[in-house]
Design brief:
Layout (H helix, E strand, L loop, with lengths): L2 H13 L2 H8 L3 H15 L4 E4 L2 E4 L1 H24 L6 E7 L5 H14 L3 E7 L2 H9 L5 E5 L7 E17 L19 E5 H5 L1 H7 L7 E6 L2 H9 L4 E5 L11 E5 L5 E9 L6 H11 L1
Parallel strand pairs: 3-4, 3-5, 7-8, 7-9
Antiparallel strand pairs: 1-2, 5-11, 6-9, 6-10, 6-11
Length: 287
């Protein structure tokens, strides 16, 4: 299996057309079709189905596209690492939604003031997404919020923590409260960020089983969840600072009581082999 053929397949998947992909790749359509046919024979799977207006990927084709994109991204990362001169290249950082990214942004700003050829790529995801990408070498660092099993990683705790609370409409029955206590949540329909539902801090704060709550939905993207709150689908348990509640927003944030905070952690694989750019970022973070 050649990397070039995988890149051909990615282009076909993106264009949804062998003809358009061949034009973009500057090769003939029969040549491209032959390359993909050989790939199908090698894998023993049908990767796409021809339709009137192009092609449609099969389930196996969708899986291959995902893996091919990961391989292509890793190849690009390797090329950048080995082409470095005077410390350049790209730092790959995975992170969940947190206002603490502003702390990381300050580190990156200081780093680029001294090494302006260094770039960075932020990749969003929940803790499972980030650990998976760390394990496969697709990112250099992962930023985690709250309690996460980090036995496989080296890490530093950043001097920043997120405050937990509830986002609701300003006309909600709870909107006049200064704090939300555990008993307030028993009878409400709740939306939870994935990290709130899966991390230990919240269960400890609650004082009773999280299974006693009426959690009607979870999310990874705050923008979508805030729309659901505005549409009166429920109230949202999350961390402060990741939803825009300024100006004419219909929503407000009310903190938990007792106060509950989640620490921010920067982690990386033990004995990781870093690019010079990634090493420099770690130096700035820990200095």
């Amino acid at each position: 299996m050649e990397l070039r053929t995988l890149k051909y397949f990615i282009e076909i998947a993106n264009e949804e057309s062998i003809t358009k992909a061949a034009e973009k790749l500057h090769i003939t359509q029969p040549t491209l079709s032959r390359q993909i046919l050989q790939l199908e024979e090698e894998l023993g799977k049908k990767l796409y189905i021809r339709e009137n207006y192009g092609i449609r990927l099969t389930e196996d084709g969708i899986l291959l596209r995902k893996r091919a994109e990961e391989i292509s991204e890793l190849e690009e990362k390797i090329r950048l690492e080995f082409s470095e001169q005077n410390i350049n290249g790209t730092i790959y950082i995975g992170a969940g939604e947190t206002d603490g990214i502003k702390y990381v942004a300050k580190i990156l700003k200081k780093l680029r003031e001294q090494h302006n050829r260094i770039k960075f790529r932020m990749i969003s995801g929940d803790s499972e997404d980030i650990t998976d990408k760390l394990d496969r070498g697709l990112i250099d660092f992962g930023i985690f919020v709250g309690k996460v099993n980090l036995k496989k990683y080296d890490f530093v705790t950043l001097p920043y923590s997120d405050k937990w609370g509830v986002i609701m409409r300003k006309d909600d029955e709870f909107s006049g409260k200064k704090f939300i206590v555990p008993e307030d949540l028993r009878e409400r329909e709740l939306l939870f960020s994935h990290q709130a539902k899966t991390h230990g801090e919240f269960s400890e704060w609650l004082g009773y089983s999280i299974n006693e709550l009426n959690i009607i939905g979870t999310h990874n993207l705050m923008f979508n969840a805030s729309i659901m709150v505005r549409e009166k689908l429920g109230i949202l348990v999350t961390i402060e600072g990741i939803a825009n509640l300024t100006g004419e927003s219909e929503l407000k944030f009310v903190p938990l009581k007792p106060e509950l905070k989640a620490k921010l952690v920067l982690a990386w694989k033990k004995e990781a082999v870093f690019s010079r750019a990634a090493k420099k970022f770690l130096e700035f973070t820990t200095s």
